[in-house]
Amino acid sequence: MQSNQEPNNEELQALKKKVAELEKQLKYQEMRADAYDTMIDIAEKKFNIPIRKKAGAKQ
Q1: Model pTM greater than 0.70?
Q2: Whole-angstrom Cα distance, residue 43 to residue 49?
Q3: How far is it, in rounded angstroms, from Cα 12 to Cα 20?
Q4: How far apart are CA 56 and CA 23, in angstroms?
């Protein structure tokens, strides 16, 4: 008999599938953030204007 604490095989497969999908989404979002960073770096150099806010800037 299995206790209610242990996931059965179907639940385990569903969880593994969900983890794989989330890892895929994470990788996509990390690549997207890197692309935006690169785009901002290029724009700052090309147009010689600061785009990113300074760390201590007041709003």
Answers
A1: no
A2: 8
A3: 12
A4: 34
Question: In whole angstroms, what is the distance from residue 36 CA to residue 41 CA?
Answer: 9
- 1-59 confidence digits (pLDDT tens): 455 677 799 999 999 999 999 999 999 999 999 999 999 999 999 999 898 877 665 65
CA-to-CA distance for 8 and 35, rounded, in angstroms? 41
Cα distance between residue 40 and residue 46, in whole Å: 10
Task: Find tokens 């997207």 and name the residue.
Answer: 32
CA dist 27 and 33 (Å) reads: 10
CA geometry: angle 5, 8, 12, nearest 5 deg: 100
